[in-house]
Design goal:
The protein has 369 residues and is mainly beta. The chain is built from three helices and 27 strands. The protein is globular.
Length: 369
C-alpha cells in the first residue's frame, strides 16, 4: 500500500486530494526536536535543546509547554525520548544521567526513576538510549553502563524492566558491547525497543539484519521474527513504476531513484492501539533527498506478518525524518540547526555570520486505501 504525500500537501495549507492534518507548526520555534509522540488529539514534541515539551492539538495549534532544562523537579537534562507513563502523564527518557522523569499532564513533576540506583558502580556510568512504559507497571529500558574498574574499556549493553525504585526486576538481555569489527561481523546490538499490550518486550537484535524478538518479562518465552524484507512487499517493478511516475510529475528534476545496495535495516519499532507491531525499515532505494521514503512492515502481536505500508513524503531537506505516531498519523521532523560561519576574501576582508537552518515538525494524517 503506497501512501504518496505531495509537497503541496505539506506546509500548513490544504489542497484538493491532500490528507487531513498536513500542518506545519509555524507558530513554534524549536532548537532540536528529538521525539514526537501522540495520544488522542494531543501531540507532544520534545525539544532536547531547551528541555521543553510543546503540546499541540490535532491541527498543530500549540496548547501548552511543560518541562524545561535544569536539575530541579520536573526539569530535564539531555532528554532523548518520550513514552506515556502512569497517571495520564508523559515520561521523558534522559540519556545521561540516565533517568526517566515523569511529568503530570499540567507539567507538575512526578516520579523520577534512576536505573541501577542501588548499584553505585553501574549507576555512575549508566546511560539510556530508549524506553517504554508498561501498563502493568515499570519501564522497559535499553542502555548501557561502563565498567570503570577495568579502566573504562568495557561497556555492557542491557535491556531490562525497572521498577519505580530503579531496581531491575527482569534483565531481558545483557551483552558486552562489541568493538566495530564485531558489530560488523555479528551485529550484536539492539537500539530499538517497544512494549506490546501484553507487557512483552519487543527489541531488535542487530543493526545489519531484519530480526526482532518478543520476550515475555518474567518468563522464558521468546519468539524470534526473521524475514527477508522483500517478501510480500512491492516488487522491484512496482517500486520502479512509483519512481517513474514521480519523475513524470516533476519534469526537469535531477533526483534519481537508485536501488539500495544494502539489505533493509530496522530503524524503529512501535506498537499501535490495536497491539499491532510496526517495524520501520530503510528504503529500498538509496536516500532520495529531498524525498523521504519510509517503509513499515506491520505484524500481529504474535509476530505474524500482516501487511506493508510505504510512505513517500516530498520534503524540502535531505535530513527530514519520518516518525510513527499511531499508524494513521505520522510526523516529519526537520532538524536544520544554526551555526556561525566565518569568512574571508582575497582583499583581506573577513567576518562571520549566522546561517540558521530550519527546525520544524509536520503532522501528517494518512487515510485508508
Amino acid at each position: 500500500m503506497l501512501r504518496h504525500i505531495p509537497r503541496r500537501c505539506v506546509g500548513g495549507h490544504t489542497a484538493p486530494g491532500c490528507p487531513r492534518g498536513a500542518e506545519r507548526l509555524s507558530e513554534v520555534f524549536f532548537g532540536y526536536v528529538s521525539a514526537v509522540v501522540a495520544r488522542g488529539d494531543e501531540v507532544y514534541i520534545l525539544d532536547s535543546q531547551t528541555g521543553e515539551i510543546t503540546v499541540v492539538d490535532a491541527q498543530g495549534r500549540p496548547a501548552r509547554t511543560i518541562g524545561g532544562m535544569g536539575e530541579g523537579p520536573g526539569e530535564l537534562q539531555l532528554p532523548i525520548g518520550m513514552t506515556f507513563g502512569p497517571t495520564n502523564g508523559i515520561a521523558v527518557i534522559q540519556g545521561y544521567p540516565a533517568k526517566v522523569v515523569e511529568l503530570l499532564p499540567d507539567g507538575a513533576p512526578g516520579a523520577v526513576i534512576a536505573p541501577y540506583d542501588n548499584d553505585p558502580a553501574k549507576r555512575s556510568s549508566c546511560y539510556l538510549v530508549s524506553g517504554r512504559y508498561r501498563s502493568m507497571g515499570g519501564y522497559v529500558l535499553s542502555g548501557g553502563w561502563i565498567d570503570f574498574a577495568s579502566g573504562g574499556d568495557r561497556t555492557t549493553l542491557f535491556v531490562g524492566v525497572f521498577d519505580p525504585d530503579g531496581n531491575v526486576t527482569d534483565l531481558i538481555a545483557e551483552s558486552e558491547m562489541p568493538n566495530a569489527d564485531q558489530i560488523i561481523e555479528n551485529g550484536t546490538y539492539w537500539p530499538h525497543v517497544a512494549v506490546g499490550q501484553g507487557g512483552e518486550a519487543i527489541r531488535t537484535t542487530a543493526w545489519d539484519r531484519y530480526e526482532f524478538v518478543l520476550e515475555s518479562p518474567g518468563s522464558d518465552e521468546v519468539r524470534t521474527v526473521r524475514r527477508d524484507a522483500t517478501d510480500k512487499t512491492r516488487s522491484r517493478r512496482e517500486l520502479d513504476a512509483v519512481a517513474s511516475n514521480w519523475l513524470r510529475q516533476n519534469p526537469g528534476s535531477d533526483k534519481k531513484f537508485v536501488p539500495a545496495k544494502t539489505s533493509p535495516q530496522i530503524v524503529s519499532v512501535d506498537v499501535d492501539a490495536s497491539g499491532h507491531i510496526w517495524i520501520g525499515r530503510s528504503s529500498p532505494y538509496e536516500p532520495l533527498a529531498p524525498e523521504v521514503f519510509m517503509v513499515f512492515d506491520v505484524f500481529s502481536a504474535n509476530g505474524d506478518y500482516i501487511k506493508t505500508v510505504e510512505l513517500v513524503v516530498e520534503a524540502d531537506r535531505e535530513n527530514d525524518r519520518l516518525v510513527f505516531l499511531d499508524g494513521k498519523r505520522f510526523a516529519v521532523i526537520r532538524n536544520y540547526v544554526c551555526a556561525g560561519i566565518a569568512w574571508s576574501n582575497s582583499a583581506g576582508g573577513s567576518g562571520s555570520e549566522d546561517q540558521c537552518m530550519e527546525v520544524t515538525v509536520r503532522l501528517l494524517e494518512v487515510g485508508e486505501d
